Amino acid sequence: MYRQSEQFLKFRETSSRIRRLTLSLGLLMLVSYFTMIVLINFTSTLDGFAIRTVSWAYLFALFQFVMVLVITITYKRAMNAIERTDEPTFGHSREVVTS
Amino acid sequence: MSTGSLILFLGLIAVTLVITWRAGRKTDSVGDHLVAGGKIGGRQNGFAIVGDAVSASTFLGTIGAIALSGVNAIFLSAFVPVAFLLSMLFVAEPLRNLGKVTLADVAAVRFPSRYVRTAMASSSASISVLYIVAQYVAGALLLKLLFGIEYWIAIAIIAVLTSVYALVGGMLAATWIQILKAFLLLASVTLLFLLTLSHFGWSIYQVFDSTTAMNGALTTPSRSGMGHSIDQLSLSIGMILGVIGLPHVLIRFLTVKDAKAARTSANTCIWIVSALLVTFPVIAYGAANLVGSDRIVQAAVGGNLAVPLLAEFLGGDLLLAFVAAVAVSTILASLAGMVLATTGAVAHDIYGQVLKSGNISPRAELTVARITIVGTGALATLIAFAARDQNLAVLASLAIALAASANFPALMFTVYSRYVTGPGLASGLAAGLVSAIAMIASSPTFHGKDAINPLVNPAIVTVPLAIVVTLLVSWFTRPTGSRLEDADRNFDAMRYQAVTGKPFPWKQLATNNGAPTRALGDEDQTIAVGLK
Fold first, then answer.
1. pLDDT tens-digit profile of A5-43?
2. pLDDT at B387 over 80
3. Residues of A in contact with B236 (CB under 8 A)
4. Which pLDDT score, from 0 to 100, does residue B100 have?
5. Which of B20, B273, B404, B428 is the most core-located residue (most Cβ within 10 A)?
6. A3/B85 CB distance under 8 A
7. Do B510 and A22 touch (CB under 8 A)?
C-alpha cells in the first residue's frame, strides 16, 4: 500500500508539522482576538485608562496588530524552514499552472 | 464640488480605463479573464488584496463608526488583519495548490459530483451578487452626494464602468486598478493622519485627551445589555470567518503562480492593512473633534461621510475631491473583482462543468463568461434600483453572514477533514445559506422590537449549525468497504496536492492494490491526472 511507502510517510510527517504550526498560530490569534471582544463587551476589565486618556481597551486592540505581525513573521520563517528541510516533498513544482 | 475636483475625479477614471484597455490586450482565455492566468506576482497581488481588504465600507464605515461609537467599534478596525492572517494560515496555500479558476474547483478536487459544485457555485454567486448590490448602492449614494446627480444616473455610471473593467480587462485590469487604488488609499490615509495630528500638536495623546474632554464615552468601552453584547460577539465571528469565505477575496489567491507567491501576497497584505488600520482611531477621533459628531450624523446615518467631511475641513475642496475619488475608485475596483467571482461561478462552474459536463471549448466558455458579466451588471442594477432605500449594512452583513455560514465551513471541511462526505458538504452549505437568510429576515433589522429572533448578526448560530449539519449528514452517509478505501485515497491525494502543489504520485507509490477501485468522475481533472 502507498501508505507504507517512505515517500508518503515523509509527506505525512511534513503535513503534520504544517498542520500543527498553522493550528497553534491560528488558535493563538483567535484566543487573543476574542479575549479582547469578550472583555470589551461583557466585562469592565478594560474600561480604565492605561496611559493618560488611552484606555486599556485601546492598548489591547493595539496588541492585536502586534500579535498579527509577530505571527505573520513566525509563520513565514517556519514555512521557509520546512520547505528547505523537506526539499524532496516540495521539490520545485509548487507552481500550479492555471487556465 | 468645484470644477477642479471634477477634473481630478474624471482623470482617475481615465487612468483606470487606460489600465483596462492595456490589460485587455493581454487577456484572451478564460483563465486570463477570471484569474489573470496565474501570472500576477506575489507582492503585486498583496497590494491588490489590500484593495479588497480595505473596501469602501472599511475606509468610510469604520472611521465613521469609531467617530460616533468610540472604542466599541474598534473591532471593525482590528478584525481585518486578523481575518487575513487566518486566511494565510488556513486557506491561501491550499487554495492556490488545488484551485484553478473558482472556489468550487477546490471542492471538486475531492468531491467531483455535480451537486457539490452546484451548491458551492450557487453560494459563491449569491454572496457576490449581494455584495455587488451593496457596493452599487453605496457608490451611487456617494456619487449622488458628491456631484448632485440623480440616483439612477449614478447607478448607471457605476454599472457601465464596472462592466467595462471586467469585460475588457478581466482580472488583470481589476488587479492593477486595485493596486492603483491601494497606493491612493495609502496616500490619502497618510495625509489625513498627518493633517489630523497637526491640529493636535503632533501628539496622539492629545487627540485622545481632546476626545475624552469632549465626550468621555468615546474613549472607554460601554455596554448596553447582554443581548447587545452577544450580538457584537456574533458580528465579530461573522466578520472574521466571512472574509475567509468571500469569493472575490479568495479567488485573488488563484491569480498567482504558486503557494509561495500566495503566502507572499497574504504577508504583504497583512503588513499594509495593519499599517493603515492602526491609524483609523486617530483619524476617527480627529473627525469627531474637528468636524463634530452632530454634523457627521446629519451628513449620513452611521457616520459614513465622516472621512470626506474631515478631508474638507483639513484640506478644503482639493483634499475632499482626492478622498472622494479614492472612495469611489475603491468601490469600482472591488466591484470588478466581485463581478469576476460571480462570472467564474456561473460560466465556469454551473454552465461549463455542471450543464455541459466539462465538454465546452475555451472560446465558448469565454463567450459565456462575457455574457455573464453583462448579465450580472444588469441584475445588480435592477436589484440596486429596488434596494435604493434599503439599509446598506443589511445587504453587506447578509453577504458576510452567508460567506461565514456557507463557504467558510465548506472550504475548511474540504481541505482539512477526512470524514466529511459530498452530501455532508452540500447539506452544510445549504443549511448555512438558508439559516443565515432566515435569521436575518426574522431579525430586528426587519421587524424592530417585535422580531422573533433577537440577533441582528446571525453567525454565532448559523456557523455552528452549518458545521453540525455537515458532520451529521457526513456520518449518516459515511462510506463503507471499498468506497471507504476510495474516500481515504481521495483525501490523501487531495492533501498531497494541497500541501505540495503536485498531483499525487500514484505511479511511484501505488502497487496493484494501491490503485483506486472506482473512477472518481471526469469532472475532476486534477485527481484524474493523478490516478492515471
1. 888 888 899 999 999 999 999 999 999 999 999 999 999
2. no
3. 33-34, 37
4. 85
5. B404
6. no
7. no
| Residues of chain A with C-beta less than 8 angstroms from the C-beta of B513 | 1
Q: What is the mean pLDDT of chain A?
A: 88
* Separation between Cα atoms, residue B433 and residue B410, nearest integer Å: 11
More confident of the two residues B77 and B398? B77
Q: Is B82 on the interface with A (CB under 8 A)?
A: yes
Single-letter amino acid code for the residue at B60? L
Crossing angle, helix B114-147 and helix B151-164, to 10 degrees?
130
Nearest to A40 among B72, B90, B278 (CB): B72
Strand partners, B40: B256
Tell which phi-psi region holds residue B38, choosing left (phi > 0), alpha (psi between -120 and 50) or beta: left
Give the per-residue pLDDT at B58. 83
Query: Quick count: other Cβ atoms within 10 Å of Cβ B214?
Result: 14
Task: Please give the grid coordinates belonging to residue B57.
Answer: 465600507
Question: Residue B499, exposed/middle/buried by CB under 10 A (0-12, 13-18, 19+)?
Answer: buried
Q: What angle do CA B270, B274, B277 make, to 5 degrees?
A: 135
Nearest to B101 among A34, A58, A98 (CB): A98
Residue recorded with cell 446629519: B298
